[in-house]
Amino acid sequence: MSMFDERINRINTASVKWELTKQIFGEADLWPMWVADMDFKPPHAVLDALQKRVEHSVFGYTFVPDTAAKAIADWLDKRHQWTIQPSWLTYCGGVVQAISTAIQSFTKEGDRVLLQSPVYTPFFNMIEKNNRVVVNSPLVLEGNRYKIDFESFENALKEGCKLFLLCSPHNPAGRVWTKEELQKIGELCLQYDCLILSDEIHSDLIYKQYKHIPIASLNEELSEKTITFIAPSKTFNLAGLQASAVVIKNDALRKQFNATLNRQGFFSLSALGITGMEAAYRDGEAWLDELIDYLQENKDYCLSFIQEHLPEITSIESEGTYLLWLDCRKLGLTDQQLQDALIQKGKLVLEPGPKYGPGGEGFVRVNIACPKADVIEGMNRLKKALK
Questions:
Q1: How do the domains of the chain map onto residue ranges?
Q2: For 215-258, what is each residue's pLDDT tens digit?
Q3: How many CA atoms does the CB half-sphere of 11 hold within 13 Å?
Q4: DSSP state, 40?
Q5: What is the number of other CB atoms lying within 10 angstroms of the CB of residue 337?
Q6: 48-107 pLDDT, tens digit each
Q7: Which CATH class is domain 59-282?
Q8: Cys-Cys crosslink for 278: which of 5, 68, 289, 329, Cβ 3.0 to 4.6 Å?
Q9: Which has the closest alpha carbon to 306: 362, 199, 381, 211?
Q10: What is residue 90's three-state secondary structure?
Q11: What's the maximum distance between 2 C-alpha atoms anywhere in the chain?
Q12: Strand 145-147 to strand 140-142: parallel, antiparallel, or no bridges (unpaired)?
């Protein structure tokens, strides 16, 4: 029995995933496979470090120590063969906050920011809430795999985009971009003087036949024109600790970013966020390797189940993340009808595709980072809803 088979009751822990279903979807008795967090305990090393910190019992003002920066740098070097200096790091409460801070730091109101839909909803939100203009170069679905339309991408850059928001690996589609794709992205962004904001929060959750490559690691020019966002939140299920790291090699850009943070009144992470992040990156590797094997088994089960019982649905090839992106368009349902069937008939909550922008219509996103028994329950509810 795997440690990930343990079912943990998350009710009365203020869990968004488990306790806000009635508020958001109108019913309380729904099976939640929507929010992108896991139903697993983090590594024991993280829990031990947090417990030790709590037992110390004094929680005054904190700073991120050199030991945490070194743990992050060592992790990136070992897992992704990306050598950084700890001095390149700065910190935010979360990746979405960091993306918003970067948009505020490197653009002004009315500037154009490029993204590729369907993509993580806050990409749109942070551009629009900061009064910048969304420019979209949609991904192209060929078979069950998304590709980049580089002609569209270049045409968008020609319009004068100041920033490009790269989702790598891609959420919700699970694409792990190849070296060739990243090099082409990088060449075009350099050619048109467009700064790259690379959200790599899912970069550690890669299935074994694939390889994540940080775009900033490709060459010296790109390392100077890329802001990279990482966090232990997805990798180790620590989202509630509110800690992320931002890699900015360029001194001037890093100073500009930090100046914006200071204007926002942000100066450091929480004590437990620092402790959890350092312990995860220092001692979490064996746990992560076991997790990826478990997620692979969950993914294989889901794909087999859908193929057997719901052959009209196509699962887009998931190369990374713990998310499945299901193409339900052959069912002939509107997005509202699809959601109604899932909620009313299946008592199942999945993320509706239109949340991810143009190209998301007719799709749903499924979180499979839960015990196998819960995955089985979710698939049976999916069958009940849509069969």
A1: 3-43+286-386, 59-282
A2: 999 999 999 999 999 999 999 999 999 999 999 999 999 999 99
A3: 7
A4: S
A5: 11
A6: 999 999 999 999 999 999 999 999 999 999 999 999 999 999 999 999 999 999 999 999
A7: alpha beta
A8: 68
A9: 381
A10: strand
A11: 59
A12: antiparallel
Tokens of 346: 């299946």
Q: What is the CATH number of domain 3-43+286-386?
A: 3.90.1150.10
Residues β-bridged to residue 135: 114
In tens, the pLDDT along 261-299 reads 999 999 999 999 999 999 999 999 999 999 999 999 999
Query: What pLDDT was estimated at residue 365?
Result: 98
Q: Cα separation of 342 and 345, whole Å?
A: 6
Of 116, 99, 71, 118, which Cα lies nearest the Cα of 281? 71
387 pLDDT above the threshold of 90: no
The first and second tokens of residue 206, run together, are 């890669």
Q: Running DSSP on this structure, what letter comes out for residue 250?
A: -
Distance CA 13, CA 37 (A): 14
> Which string of DSSP letters, residue by residue, matches 261-322?
HHHHT-----HHHHHHHHHHHHH-HHHHHHHHHHHHHHHHHHHHHHHHH-TT-EE----BSS
For 172-223, the DSSP string reads: TT-----HHHHHHHHHHHHHTT-EEEEE-TTTT-B-TT-----GGGS-HHHH
- Cβ atoms of 5 and 376 closer than 8 Å: no
Locate 111 and state its tokens: 């500037």
Tokens in use for 242? 């509110």
